[in-house]
Amino acid sequence: MPRLLLPVLVLAACGGSDGATLLRGLPPCDPPTVSRQEFRHTFSGRGDPHHAANDVIVGVGQAPRVRAKLSYGAILKDLEDEDVALVAGEGACGPWITEDLRRTDDDGWVEFELPAAAEPGIRTFHAIAVGDGTRATGRIWTVAPGTRAVLFDIDGTLTTGDSELVEDLLGDGAPNLRPGAPEVARHWDELGHLVVYMTGRPYFLRGSSRRWLERHGFPPGVLFTVENHRDALPSSSRVGAFKRGRVEAMLAAGLVFDAAYGNAATDVCAYAEGGIDPVLTWITELDRGPCGTHAAPNPLPSYLEHLDALRALP
Fold first, then answer.
1. Which domains does the chain have, with CATH numbers?
2. Is 151 exposed, middle or buried (0-12, 13-18, 19+ CB in 10 A)?
3. How far is the C-alpha of 310 from the C-alpha of 305, rounded, in Å?
């Protein structure tokens, strides 16, 4: 086991997480519907839908803002200047309430603000194009202060390399899995941690990313993808800034991270600069050094060995 184990032991032993409570026993849901009306524009809604919406994490008493991107066809034609209804559940699976009706902008985006929740819980939301009933779906996670969490990058961290993203983009087979990665994620979930998956993949791969996680037995959790194609570029000013901003927002919502996993220099810096102590960060690419004056992260040569060490903790 690499150095810097003790801080992980101390934090993990603290307990007191709402993460597992929020995640357990989510039933299959009957999706809500809305009254249909014709699209405002003749060429709207042509082709298969490729809609997406990121999950949202907020603290108790914080009003969540949700954003959805609606596009169609092989060229991802944006749904512009069309009405979208936001339907949100009082819980993870309804009862459903139509919260608002908004119109998409020139890039196919629509944004809503929902009322704050007074206690921790999960609310599922659907941003539904009223012209054809297709939708983007996400979850709002309201967390109590001090909720324990663990963070995973995907490509090169849970998969065997960043090139697996290209395979997904080209439809050239499912990304390859690092042995032991699902077991490590499930271990943290069983301890009661909220599991967060954060990837530089573009928004239109959100669905395939979620299916890949489910197929390989990863526990359910929060999923963040980039919302702008340019932000998927592997640089500190693009994907690095995206991840840093997400980390800052999650800490502000009340999450406390007991571990974070990555592979790239952008992960090392984003986690450290966002506020996660490098003592809690594990990097699968063993040559990754520190970010600036921050301490170096822990190397992670094997999830299987790492799991054995985690299980050995008191």
1. 5-17+146-311 (3.40.50.1000), 52-143 (2.60.40.1930)
2. buried
3. 9
Its pTM stands at 0.87
pLDDT tens digits for range 293-305: 999 999 999 999 9
Structure confidence by residue, pLDDT tens digits, 139-180? 999 999 999 999 999 999 999 875 544 454 444 445 689 999
Residue 237: DSSP 8-state: T
Percentage of the chain exceeding pLDDT 70: 84
Quick one: which of 225, 57, 53 has its CA closest to 149?
A: 57
Of the candidates 147, 250, 137, the residue with the CA atom closest to the CA atom of residue 193: 147
- Rounded to whole angstroms, the Cα distance separating 83 from 105 reads 10
Q: Which amino acid is at 273?
A: E
Assigned token pair, 187: 């271990």
Q: Quickly tell me which residue has 């459903």 as its tokens.
A: 96
Contact 49, 134 (CB under 8 A): yes
- The CA distance from 242 to 153, in Å, is 12
Which distant-in-sequence residues (6+ apart) come within 8 Å of 166 by Cβ? 172
Tokens representing 121 are: 């819980």
Residue 240 token pair: 């690095």
